[in-house]
Amino acid sequence: MYAKLLVKRLESKSITVSSLDPVWAQTDMGGRAALRLPKEVTTDILYLLNNDVKSGYFGIEEKLGSGR
Asked: How far apart are CA 43 and CA 64, in angstroms?
């Protein structure tokens, strides 16, 4: 919801707002049993940064360029 609020507040400044659900990643907090490697999450973040996505986009693993 906060991303949608930012979209409205920043639309006149041509700033794109995106949010990402990284799912459960193998970090100190997620542990080794987590589903994804940090590298995979990084790929999704880079996809959002390097592609023309609509402002307000909510990225989840299945819809991003992580190849999973």
From this structure: 9
* DSSP-assigned letter for residue 65: S
24: which residues sit within 8 A by CB, 6+ positions away? 30, 34, 35, 36
For the stretch 4-27, pLDDT in tens is 899 999 999 989 998 888 888 999
Evaluate whether residue 9 is within a structural domain.
Answer: yes
> What is the number of domains present in the chain?
1
pTM exceeds cut of 0.85: no
